[in-house]
């Protein structure tokens, strides 16, 4: 069976950046191997020479994250992070491995670990994890399961806190190529170092949450009121949240509070996001303690994606198609006004505010319903 643990209040180690760097250098000097997946794999110590030295340290279960200073690309803020697994086991330093990863904040305010990336004249994207099959009519279509790159909910608040320490991060577009494997333009599937731990975990029926079945679904398409949860897997809104953290975002209208909440059977955890105008849910996670070298969980929680639409989601006319077509990740008929911050996104509030679980969350926390949520006409 897989080990599970309920923890709260995870915070970065209370040590100076100088001490973090000194202990990290000592670990490397003692023989611990640096294991980047990108171009630096041919000369890993180039990362140290170019200044990607850890300044912060964060622990979760038996994993230690050594994080360099926050930097930014045009589309994301990120930490170059060294992941040390089995940190509490008695292992000689020369047999230790420090996996170098790219922890970045997605537009949905979730911290993720990039699985791979593509960058060329035609493409510029960060890989968002494993693929999952979705049946569309008689066909089986494979889609990226972005939640497989979500870092543990237990550390999301700490990453937000660390990111606020740097008011204006240095711009650096080199790091991702050094750290993460570059893929051909047409390769969406991640590489084996990302998928293998997941395949191993999925092969054991005892490790599957709810037997691998969905814990939440809709009985009718595009009907938010038809939401159903498997018994016991509902968010337990009668109990105090495990954690409440904060982030700020222009896209979401200012202060966003993040509430981490257990399911009623205490087998999974949710994160509710509450902005000045919206409430939405992040895909739930297991409480398992095993993390892969990418810092993410190896066990999935299956649920209907429409339950986890962020408050500002992609919804725009794609003029690169002939003829142009509407591209939308908001359930049909529920898109609100276009965002003034990102014109490619629209307000998903009309869908979210009709979800019974969002209404109950607002009632329990005494959060007033927004006054301006309305669907687009036409």
Report on the architecture of this protein.
Helix content is about 15%, strand content about 30%. It is an alpha+beta fold. It has a domain at about 210-365. Strand 4 and strand 5 form a beta hairpin. It is globular, with a radius of gyration of 21 Å.
Task: Jot down its keywords.
378 residues, alpha+beta, 8-stranded mixed β-sheet, 4-stranded antiparallel β-sheet
Query: Total number of β-strand segments?
Result: 21
Main sheet summary = 8 strands, mixed
Rg, rounded, reads: 21 Å
**Helix/strand-derived class?**
alpha+beta
H/I helix tally = 7
Strand content: 25-35%
Span of the ends, CA to CA:
52 Å
Mean of pLDDT = 93
Uncertain segments of ≥5 residues (pLDDT<50)?
A: none
Helix content: 10-25%
Order of helices and strands: HEHEEEEEEEEEEHEHHEEEEEEEEEHH
Q: What is the molecular shape? A: globular
Please write out the topology.
Layout: H1 17-29, E1 33-36, H2 46-49, E2 54-60, E3 63-68, E4 71-72, E5 77-84, E6 97-105, E7 111-113, E8 117-119, E9 124-126, E10 131-136, E11 139-144, H3 153-163, E12 170-171, H4 175-179, H5 192-202, E13 216-218, E14 227-229, E15 243-249, E16 254-262, E17 268-274, E18 279-286, E19 312-318, E20 325-328, E21 345-347, H6 349-352, H7 356-365
Parallel strand pairs: 1-6, 4-12
Antiparallel strand pairs: 2-3, 3-5, 4-5, 5-6, 6-7, 8-9, 10-11, 13-14, 15-16, 16-17, 17-18, 19-20, 19-21
